[in-house]
Specification:
Elements lengths: L1 H27 L1 E5 L7 E4 L2 E2 L5 E4 L6 E5 L4 E2 L13 E11 L8 E7 L29 E6 L13 E6 L6 E4 L1 E4 L4 E4 L8 E8 L4 E8 L10 E4 L9 E9 L5 E11 L26 H29 L18 H7 L8 E5 L2 E7 L6 E8 L6 H12 L9 E7 L2 E7 L6 H6 L8 H21 L3 E3 L8 E3 L5 E3 L6 E3 L12 E2 L5 H6 L4 H17 L15 H10 L17 H14 L10 H9 L21 H9 L7 E2 L15
Antiparallel strand pairs: 1-18, 2-5, 3-4, 4-18, 5-17, 6-17, 7-14, 7-18, 8-9, 8-17, 9-10, 10-11, 12-13, 14-15, 15-16, 19-20, 20-21, 21-23, 22-23, 24-27, 25-26, 28-29
Helix pairs in contact: 6-8, 6-11, 8-10, 9-10
Subcellular location: Cell membrane
GO cellular component, one term: plasma membrane
Enzyme class: transferase
């Protein structure tokens, strides 16, 4: 008995110490604050404690952060007697959000469980003072947050501007819900507004055994509802570390709110103690607008109404002037192809400078998106004297709009204003062919694409020469008037100087129109255009594509100035393929290249009747006909029927190959219905 008593005396002090440590541990695992005067709390940034104990996280300062944390971490690892890990916790707090303006507020408040109280680099606004755009979403954050969010941020997939969400390591909530509470009396959900300025009660409970996180909210006047707002299955074992801090973070943005915490209870090892509402500090009184005498309200109100009416009237007049256009009765038959100026104005954002695609000799071209169909278009604004031949002029435009071919840029319609004409075309995203050929684009246009473009343009010319209801003379075929769609298919554009005539008739025109270097010799002599002169231009265009250079380049050696003459001389000397664009680096089909060069020379024959028709050209390019041999005499090929030296001297007196001679005021020296 003496031995047993002695052992009992030795055991009792140890048991007393263990029980005391256990009680101390339980005290350290929980706290409750009714107000924060003298509380063990760590506020930082702009957070402060008012004399009455009210914790103010943020005020009405914009783009600010406020935080407050319990200064010591809680251990989520082991108990005194075993090594089991428990992650359960319970907390409740009372908060209020008082917005600067009745309908606008700061971003919100977040309750946080974090491995650190140091949030270096965290941003205000939508990041709630916790993360930034580089840290958002990192698994190394080990962050649990319950956000009370009063701003909807689509980038964060917020459901609305009044919700509570559960966040793990990022600010895109894994689950969220509009702010409501379950009324046990009425057995239904009731809405709450975070920014109402009223105090609200929040309960957050995590049960590790059930792996369930519950978030409940209610007005300050009510008891805890039996049904939580959010009940989420959650395994926090990979998020929570052994040592974690608990606290709050809040932020404002371009608009601010005062965010308050009035009381806070937390328990690491059991249910958090209930807050006594009667012991909570009061909120600062909200400012009420002072009543003004009747006259001080009435006079400014009347003045405001008069000013509003004056501004509205002026706006109406300006609006009418802005969208004013010319319409005449005879245009009714062209209704489907007539665009309203209002739609074109909106499509191009008021013909904004940032939508400008390019400038030509007679107007500017803008990119636009038609509001009715969301279709991209190019809108060309050109000057036009409406007093001269308006009806015939519009009829010809509408005729162009009826042309339908996969290798033509579609003219969709038009609009008329005083002194101004607007033409609406398909938008060609890859720009004009000459920009890809001559402006050092990388990678270069390969031979397969070039050959495909030549076949497409030839097919389009055959269509307008022979297959449409009238004969259409384009009169300006060149690389800058061939546009490339999204698939790099070539389309002929800019019919600004085109002429129409019936099949079997002869066009009546004596104006020299076109671009130097592409003009057929007979146009220079007689001024008359024909399908043969389009073939001549196409022949020059073929050589331009194959050789990767312009028809006339005065800076080259004399024998190379005129492209047609140079290629023909190389053909005669047996160095035909030496004219091929060196940027192709030999990556082409030799038979196709010889065909294009020979056909280009044949199409530029001085005698119109010696040139092939566009139907024959298409057959040659498609391999359905054999190209005849070229004559070795130089008098039949080239721009003018004189010696090469004389030709060069004549060409050198001409300004440049890009100079354009036109008889129509709305034609353009370079087609720019694109974005490149």
């Amino acid at each position: 008995m003496m031995v047993v008593a002695f052992k009992l005396l030795l055991f009792l002090p140890g048991l007393f110490v263990s029980l005391k440590l256990l009680a101390l541990a339980q005290e350290e695992n929980q706290f409750i604050y009714h107000g924060f005067t003298g509380a063990n709390l760590l506020p930082n940034e702009i957070a402060k404690i008012h004399p009455n104990g009210l914790l103010e996280l943020t005020n009405t300062s914009k783009h600010q952060i406020g935080r407050a944390f319990f200064p010591f971490p809680f251990q989520f690892s082991t108990s005194l007697f075993n090594n089991s890990r428990s992650l359960s916790f319970s907390t409740q707090f009372v908060f209020a959000m008082v917005p600067e303006l009745p309908t606008l507020s700061g971003h919100g408040i977040a309750f946080i469980v974090s491995p650190s109280v140091n949030f270096t680099g965290a941003l205000s606004g939508r990041y709630l003072g916790i993360l930034n755009f580089t840290t958002d979403g990192l698994s190394s954050n080990h962050l649990l947050a319950v956000e009370l969010d009063a701003i909807r941020n689509p980038d964060l997939k917020d459901i609305n501007d009044n919700h509570i969400g559960i966040d793990l390591n990022e600010l895109i909530s894994i689950e969220s819900a509009p702010v409501t509470y379950f009324s046990d009396e009425e057995k239904e959900n009731k809405s709450l507004t975070l920014t109402s300025g009223n105090m609200m009660h929040v309960w957050i409970d995590y049960n590790e055994v059930e792996r369930l996180l519950n978030v409940t909210v209610a007005p300050i006047t009510g008891t805890k509802p039996t049904l939580p707002l959010l009940s989420t299955s959650l395994d926090l074992s990979s998020v929570m570390l052994d040592s974690m801090y608990v606290g709050f973070s809040s932020s404002t943005g371009a608009v601010a709110s005062s965010h308050y915490i009035l009381g806070w209870s937390f328990n690491r090892s059991g249910q958090a103690q209930s807050l006594d509402v009667s012991k909570l500090p009061s909120l600062p009184p909200q400012r009420k607008p002072r009543r003004k005498p009747y006259l001080r309200i009435a006079v400014p109100a009347i003045a405001a109404i008069i000013l509003f009416l004056a501004i509205s009237g002026a706006a109406y007049i300006i609006r009418r002037k802005t969208y004013e256009e010319l319409r005449e009765d005879w245009e009714q038959e062209y209704g489907p192809q007539r665009f309203s100026y209002k739609d074109l104005y909106k499509a191009t954002k008021g013909f904004a400078a940032r939508e400008l695609l390019g400038r030509g000799g007679f107007g500017m071209v803008y990119r636009g998106v038609l509001p009715s169909s969301n279709m991209q278009v190019a809108v060309k604004k050109v000057s036009h004297d409406s007093r001269h031949g308006t009806k015939e002029f519009v009829a010809e435009i509408v005729s162009m709009g009826r042309l339908r071919h996969r290798n033509l840029v579609q003219l969709l319609g038009y609009c008329r204003r005083k002194g101004e004409l607007l033409l609406v075309y398909d938008y060609m995203p890859n720009g004009s062919l000459d920009k890809l050929l001559f402006r050092n684009h990388t990678p270069i246009l390969n031979w397969v694409r070039r050959y495909q473009i030549l076949r497409g343009v030839a097919s389009a010319l055959l269509y307008i020469h022979e297959e449409w209801q009238q004969v259409v003379l384009h009169r300006d075929v060149k690389a800058s008037n061939v546009l490339l769609d999204a698939n790099l298919n070539g389309r002929i554009g800019d019919f600004g100087i085109a002429k129409f005539h019936d099949h079997g008739s002869t066009p009546h025109t004596t104006n020299v129109v076109g671009t130097i270097g592409y003009l057929a010799p007979e146009i220079a002599r007689t001024g008359k255009s024909s399908t043969c002169s389009d073939v001549f231009s196409f022949g020059t265009f073929m050589l331009e594509v194959a050789c990767g250079r312009r028809p006339v380049e005065s800076e080259r050696p004399p024998e190379e100035v005129v492209l047609v003459d140079w290629v023909f001389e190389c053909w005669k000397s047996g160095a035909f393929l030496g004219t091929v664009d060196p940027r192709l680096e030999g990556n082409y089909v030799e038979e196709e290249m010889e065909l294009v060069l020979k056909l280009g020379l044949l199409c530029t024959h001085r005698i119109p009747s010696a040139r092939p028709s566009m139907r024959q050209v298409v057959q040659y390019l498609d391999g359905n006909a054999t190209l005849p041999d070229l004559p070795l005499q130089g008098t039949g090929i080239g721009l003018v029927p004189v010696s090469n030296e004389a030709s060069r001297e004549h060409v050198l007196t001409i300004p440049t190959s890009s100079e354009h001679i036109s008889s129509y005021s709305f034609s353009d020296s370079e087609s720019i219905l694109s974005g490149r």
